[in-house]
Amino acid sequence: MGTQMTTTQALTIQVHDAGGGFAIDRAAAFAGITIATVCDYHQHGLVDEPELDGSGCRRYRSAELLRLVQVRTLAAAGIPLAEIGDLLDYFRHIERVLDGSRVRESEDLFA
Questions:
Q1: pLDDT by residue (tens digit) across 70-91?
Q2: Furthest-apart CA pair in the chain: how many Å?
Q3: CB neighbours of 72 closer than 8 A, spacing ≥ 6?
Q4: CA neighbor of 50 nearest in space, from 63, 36, 32
Q5: 73: CB partners within 8 A, 6+ apart
Q6: Which distant-in-sequence residues (6+ apart) come within 8 Å of 53 by Cβ?
Q7: SS3 56
Q8: Inter-residue contact 22 to 16 (CB < 8 Å)
Q9: What is the pTM of this model?
Q10: Do 89 and 47 form a contact (C-beta atoms < 8 A)?
């Protein structure tokens, strides 16, 4: 699997997410990692561990699946796990700043 999500993978996430998400084995397979690696990511605080559903299973939804792929991609690029959380938080902050700039720009266009 490449480092970017394909359209088919994105659609698969949306379809399965509507049905309640993936169990850990399917989430791990989707991200191209093992269940043990998913648990390791939880222990390092890199991916939130989903709540148990009514059947006692943790269901990974779109946000967790995306985060698994992001962490796996950065780890495969040689970024130490200890640095990945801060790096992804920084990327999220930059994204929010840019989104805020876009909103202000569109408001200026219609002012």
A1: 999 999 999 999 999 999 999 9
A2: 53
A3: 31, 32, 33, 37
A4: 63
A5: 3
A6: 20, 59
A7: coil
A8: yes
A9: 0.71
A10: no
